[in-house]
Amino acid sequence: MQKEIYWEKALEQSKISIDSGNLFPLRTIDITKNFYDKKDFVIRKLDTSKFKKDLKIGPKINPFNPWDKPLEIGKIGKNHQLILNKYPVQIGHILLITNKWMPQNGWLDINDWDAIKTVNNDTSGLWFFNSGPLAGASQPHRHIQLLRRDIRENICPREKWFLNFNKCKVNNKLFKNIIVRPFNFSNDINDIYRIYVELSMNIGLGDPLKDKIPKKPYNLLITNKWIALIKRANDKIFGFSVNALGFAGYLLVTEKSDTRYLKLNGPEILLENFV
Residues near 174 by Cβ (< 8 Å), separated by ≥ 6? Predict the structure, then answer.
């Protein structure tokens, strides 16, 4: 059984950070029933009434160098730090960041995977990675995200879809641009890294051992049972912005979203526009 020391610390620091004004949980409303009658997607509307848009002139500040101390959870080895997401989609939304600058649009290296494995041995759930702006990343400093899940919870609304992915023979854009494999964190770190290399090569991103950067932006979804890599074409279309969580079944609607398109075509057809 996992000790979940990192999870307990994440909850503790979340309370401290909210009280100190360092954490701003996203306010959303579940509107799934307005658009969709199945259970493989959750559609939420973002409440922007509390947002403050300040005009900032000059270079963009790296929020991870340094990070806000109240958001700190703990060190992971020599190269990584665990902190809270400043704008969490759930309480205890965890970020695994590199201590030194590493680009978000580069390959994950074996040290990144070793850090992921270390955290997952204590606290697990849905890991996700957005490899740059076109894959939904908001920051260029390398960060991998974790939404903790209880062992009795579904990892994500689309988990059944991913578990059955290789049994289906569907010729659409999602199946052409997504690759899914069984995955187990108990494997040796070299085996875990090899799976990532093979997935990247098989989907057409290039070779992490030879190519300087991936040929295309991509998303990763990582669980205790399966891993999925999604090759991306764009980030925004019809007023929707989608990162890895969109493919996991979590869609976010804003004031700019074309909800008529969503209601007419459904969320899966919407996702096809992003690959």
Answer: 268, 271, 272, 275
